[in-house]
Structure formats: C-alpha cells, structure tokens
Amino acid sequence: MDLTVTSEALEAMIAHATRAAPEECCGILYGSKERVERAEPVANVHPDPSRHFEIDPQALLDAHRSAREGGAEVAGYYHSHPNGRAAPSETDRASASGDGRIWAIVASGNVTFWRDEPDGFCALSYTVRPG
Questions:
Q1: What is the torsional sign of CA 6, 26, 88, 99?
Q2: What is the 3-state secondary structure (H, E, C) of the chain?
Q3: What is the pLDDT along the chain (131 residues), one digit of tens a residue?
Q4: Most buried of the four, 34, 45, 102, 129, by CB within 10 Å?
C-alpha cells in the first residue's frame, strides 16, 4: 500500500528531529491508514532521551480522546534516531504492539514509514503531497 504524506507533516518531523538532536524526538501522526495529514511534536519523557523515546502519556491520551470525540484520527507515531538509521531498531521492535498504526522514523534528514503489523514492521512507500 502506498502512503500519502503532506509536505507539511514531513517538514515538521524533520525540523523537530533537528531541534531535538542529539536527543530523540517523538510525536503523533494524524490522518488515516493511507494518509498522514499532520505531525504533532510531543515531549519525549523517557529517562534516557539520548537513546530512547517515550511519548508523553497525557498527550497520547488526549489525542485518542479527541479522536473519539470527532477530532483527527491518530494514524501513528514518529520518532528520531539521531545517531542511527531510519529503520526500526531492536528497541522499536520490542516496543511495537502490532496495532497496524504507522511509525515514521527520522534519521539524517530522511524519513521512512513503517506499518506496525502483528508479524513486525512492514516498510511503506510514500508519496509527498502539498497540504
């Protein structure tokens, strides 16, 4: 399945990763299973943000609550690998839930997208669109 990503969402993730370096950044992706409309930065509350990420639980709860009340759908999540590759790490694999959401990983100015499948991560090709 080809994913569509807005240029604004892509730019927001790259800018957030650049600002956060050398620590990992993280955020929430809004849209649908086929389209990422928006990327919203959230706090990385992990005790070791130079090597790991944890999305602020309150921000995550608020995003899902808003979606249930008719707001934007949580399509997935993003985080950065400031000293690594734009691919799921062993830690990412261990943290994955297999819920089918999108994971975006930012490294060295590149963004890759993955589907969190029950059998592991599946790479997604994507097209960038304005808007």
A1: negative
A2: CEEEEEHHHHHHHHHHHHHHCCCCCEEEEEECCCEEEEEEEECECCCCCCCCCCECHHHHHHHHHHHHCCCCCEEEEEEECCCCCCCCCHHHHHHCCCCCCEEEEEECCEEEEEEEECCEEEEEEEEEECC
A3: 589 999 999 999 999 999 999 999 999 999 999 999 999 999 999 999 999 999 999 999 999 999 999 999 999 999 999 988 999 999 999 989 999 999 999 999 999 999 999 999 999 999 999 97
A4: 102
List the domain boundaries for the chain.
2-129
Which amino acid would we find at residue 23? E
CATH architecture designation of domain 2-129: 3-Layer(aba) Sandwich (3.40)
Instruction: Please state whether the predicted TM-score (pTM) of the whole model is above 0.90.
Output: yes
